[in-house]
């Protein structure tokens, strides 16, 4: 079983590379990042749906069974995501599109998934981390595509940003804190699995600080724009009233 895992991961990596190559041919008039973002969006949707099914339906429940033996479906899910993270890390390093924080996020994800697969345990909580990390990913990619197509400064862009902030805060920060507590309180998980969970949660908080700053800037811009429109409307009404007299 253990010897078959590298083959599964290699197949997953090859599948993501093939999908990226197909997107590059299909959207050859767009940038390479456009195709990579489509791959990221695809993984985000697949990983979110699969990890949700594993955690909420197939089990075991990660909050009550951290450190439990891996199930077959969990292994499939981890191999799928490990192949993607390897692809995306190599792509980001080659094209130098991401900073140190995102690269660290990918490295910790790769190490955590690899450790869980090698140990044959703790896939329940690792799968839960993948769910929390990927549930906001489609919205993040949608935001990027809206910017690229010139549709970001619209109601659609505001809705995407709103749900991204709400989901990130509620799932990655709120539920993530609960998961980290259960992980640390349980004697079953290995210490390095627990350390990986703490690092991932710390990375989420660094992202959260940036998101809060972004949300504050955007809210202030919206408020000042509303004040400006309100002042113009009052001026026009008052000016029109004076002219009538």
From TrEMBL:
Location of the protein in the cell: Membrane
Transmembrane segments: 6-24, 36-55, 75-94, 158-179, 191-212
Protein origin, superkingdom: Eukaryota
Keywords: Membrane, Transmembrane, Transmembrane helix
Keyword Transcription regulation: no
GO cellular component: membrane
TLC domain mapped to chain residues: 29-204
UniProt keyword annotation of Transmembrane helix present: yes
PROSITE patterns: TLC
InterPro entries recorded: TLC-dom (IPR006634), TLCD5 (IPR042512)
Main location: membrane
Membrane-protein topology: Multi-pass membrane protein
Name of the protein: TLC domain-containing protein
Annotated source species: Anser cygnoides (Swan goose)
